[in-house]
Amino acid sequence: MTSLSRRAFVTASTAALLTGCGGGHGTAPAANSTTKQGSSNQGGATPSASPAVRPVHALARSVPVTLRVPAIGVDTPVMQLGLASDGTVQVPPITAHDRAGWYRYSPTPGRTGPSVILGHVTVGAYGDGVFRHLARLRAGDRIDAVLENGTTATFTVTAVRTVAKADFPSDEVYGNVDRPELRLITCGGTRTGTGYLDNVIVFAALTAASP
After folding, report:
1. How far apart are CA 139 and CA 68, in angstroms?
2. Cα–Cα distance between 99 and 90 in angstroms, integer?
3. Which of 39, 55, 62, 124 is the most buried (most CB within 10 A)?
């Protein structure tokens, strides 16, 4: 953890997610309301057994600049997100050229702990967001985070969950872990007039690194 305490990090991050990370406009992709057998669960249920992953040593601190998720066609620049004036975590702006955003008070990808990257499922009148198909990921899928120092940190998905925003599992998402892990978060589930009822959360562990 950097300059924020764990408690502040969890409180602020959860508040941001509850506000509707997918925006209040556009058409919700049907995939986001569907769970995948063997890799995701509804509500607060424990994730299914994760595949065996061989962790690697933690990497030096370097901010992410690109995120690639081949299984769902994601290849996006990564911006940095901080805190808004009301103390909640910022989310990426609603723009035609949607990008994912790394929360800069979480560890950089590859450092010990849960690195957090958020993205939109829809971006208003512009249509689909960069994480529109996040719920389609399955355990074993690959995620590459390209870092500013040129290293590519490769993560393997261990679980995918769709949870009600009211039951967001803060401890599981933001709690301390003893290895480098990654969380990708977007909105999902049923869409209402003010946003989405659920969050889609991808859990992944670092399994490789290359220069």
Report:
1. 16
2. 13
3. 39
pLDDT in tens, the chain (211 residues): 433 334 444 444 444 443 334 332 222 222 222 223 233 333 443 343 455 677 789 999 999 999 999 999 999 999 999 988 887 778 899 998 899 999 999 999 999 999 999 999 999 889 999 999 999 999 999 999 999 999 999 999 999 999 999 899 989 998 999 999 999 999 999 888 778 999 999 999 999 999 8
In contact, 190 and 123? CB cutoff 8 Å: no
- Gap between the Cα atoms of 51 and 95, Å rounded: 36
Domains of the chain: 6-210 (2.40.260.10)
Note the residue count of the chain: 211
> Any idea of the CA torsion for 36, 103, 11, 196, to the nearest 10 degrees?
-40
Q: Could you tell me which residues are beta bridge partners of residue 159?
A: 203
